[in-house]
Amino acid sequence: MSKILVIGARGRAGSAAAAEARGRGHDVLGAARPRSTTPGPAAGGTAGGAGSGGAGLAAGDVLDVGRIAELAAGRDAVIAGVYDAAPDFFPRAARALVEGLGKAGVRRLVWVGLASILPTADGTLLMDTDGYPREYRSFFRAHQTALDVFAASDLDWVSLAPAGDFDHADPSAKGGYRVGPADARARISYADFAVALVDEADHPTRHRAAHGVLV
Questions:
Q1: How far apart (Å, rounded) are the C-alpha atoms in residues 111 and 150?
Q2: I need a labelling partner for 149 at 20 to 30 A (CA). Which of 12, 93, 142, 207 fits?
C-alpha cells in the first residue's frame, strides 16, 4: 500500500485519481482549496474543471509551501492536478511544490500537464500545428515554464497529459491507456487517465519528462 497525496482532489482529474488510488487500497489524502475562500477557479483543485467530490478533503493551497510540506509529510508520492486563471499560477505552483516537497522529504511528483506543449509525431509542438488555437499561447507557455522549474529541481517528477483532450462526450472507462505523441484528435476519459496517474505514483516508470496519454 502506498501513501499518496492528491492536490486538486476536487477537480475532475484529481478526484478521479483519488478514487482510482483508493480503489487499489492505497492510503489517499486529498487536498483542495476550501470552496468558501475561492471566488474563482480553485488553485488547489480544478484541473479539468470541477468534479463531484469534495467530502473529507483537507484544506490546502498549492501555492502555500508550508501547507504542502505539512500535507505531504510521510507520503510516498504526490499527484497534482491544479488550475488557476492567473497568468503566473503554474510557475508559482511548481516552485511551491519543489520547495514544499523538499521540506517534506518527498521526491515523487506526478503532475497533470497540458497536451499543447507536447511534440506531435513529427516533432512539432501541438501548439505550433496548423489550426491550433493561438489565443491561449501565454497559458501554454506558463505550463512549459512550470516544467522548466521541475527540470531544475531534484524532484523525481513526471508530467502526464491527455495526448489530445479529455473525452467529455464519453466519460466511461475503456480499461486501458497508452503513451504516445500529441494528437489533437486523441481522447481519453478521466477514469482511464487516472489509471495512468496512479500507475506512475505507485510504480514509477517514467522520470523527469512530459508524456501524452491516450486510449
A1: 10
A2: 12
